Amino acid sequence: DFGDGTILPVYEPVYGYPAEGQYTITVYLEDTSTCNVFDTASRDIQIYSYPISGFTTDTNYYEWNEPVEFTNTSSNYDELTWYFGDGDSMVGGDNPVHSYTVIGDVRPCIVTVNSPARCKDTFCIDMEIWFEALLGVPNAFSPNGDGVNDVHFIEGKGFTFMDFKI
Questions:
Q1: Which residues touch 23 (CB under 8 Å, ≥6 apart)?
Q2: Please, are residues 142 and 148 in contact by the beta-carbon 8 Å criterion?
Q3: Which of 3, 93, 143, 147 has a CA positioned 20 to 30 A from the CA of residue 112?
Q4: What distances in angstroms separate CA 161 from CA 75, 133, 134, 152, 164, one per listed residue?
Q5: Are 109 and 123 in contact (CB under 8 A)?
Q6: How far is CA 129 from CA 19, 55, 86, 99, 111, in A?
Q7: Is the N-terminal amide bond of 116 cis, ω within 30° of 0?
Q8: pLDDT digit of tens for each residue in the chain (166 aa)?
Q9: How far apart are CA 110 and CA 48, in angstroms?
Q10: Whole-number CA gyration radius for the chain
Q11: Nearest-CA neighbor of 121 among 155, 78, 162?
Q12: pTM confidence score
C-alpha cells in the first residue's frame, strides 16, 4: 500500500508518485507456507517534486559582444546556476543578461536544484556567436601639414590581415 490509494500485490514493486507530499507505505506480509501468519510494516516517506529546468533567449541570432537576455522558465526549484558556455557562470538570477566575447559555438545551460532532496535538472541550448567585421576607410586625405586630414588611417575591428595600397 503506497499511501495514496495505490496497492500493488507484487513481491518487488516499482512505483512513481504522481504528486509531492508525505506518504505512509505499508507492506502486508502473509506466510502461506505455515499457518497463514500475517505481519505488517509501515514507514513514512516524503516525496519532492523534481525540478524542471528551462530558459528562452530574446533572439535567435547572437552577435559578438551584444547582450543576450535569458528568461528562466524553470519550475520546482530552490537554487539555480547559469553556465553561459564561455567559461562564465552565475549563481541565482532569474533573467540574466550576458554578452559573449567569444566567436563560434557556445552551449549555455541552467542547472536547478530542489531542497532538501537535492534533486538536479539541467537544460542547455546550442548557440552560435556571430561576428561581422567592420571597416572604415576615408575616401580622401590631405597630407599638406595643416593638421587636418594629414594622416590616412583605417578604423575597424575583426581583421587579422590586410593588404592596403595607396
A1: 2, 3, 4, 17, 44, 45, 46, 47
A2: yes
A3: 3
A4: 49, 12, 13, 18, 10
A5: yes
A6: 41, 18, 11, 10, 22
A7: yes
A8: 999 999 998 888 899 898 889 999 999 888 878 777 889 999 999 888 889 999 999 998 899 889 999 999 999 999 999 999 999 999 999 999 999 999 899 999 999 999 877 899 999 999 999 987 777 777 787 888 888 888 877 777 766 677 877 7
A9: 20
A10: 31
A11: 78
A12: 0.65
What's the grid cell of residue 113?
A: 536544484
The closest alpha carbon to 118, from 26, 69, 49, belongs to 49
Cβ burial of 110 (10 Å; 0-12, 13-18, 19+) is buried
Closest CA to 166 of 137, 134, 135: 137
| 49 vs 144: CA distance, rounded Å | 77
* Residue 2: count of CB within 10 angstroms of its CB: 16
Please state, in angstroms and rounded to a whole number, the distance separating the CA atoms of residues 43 and 101. 54
Residue carrying the nine cell digits 524542471: 52
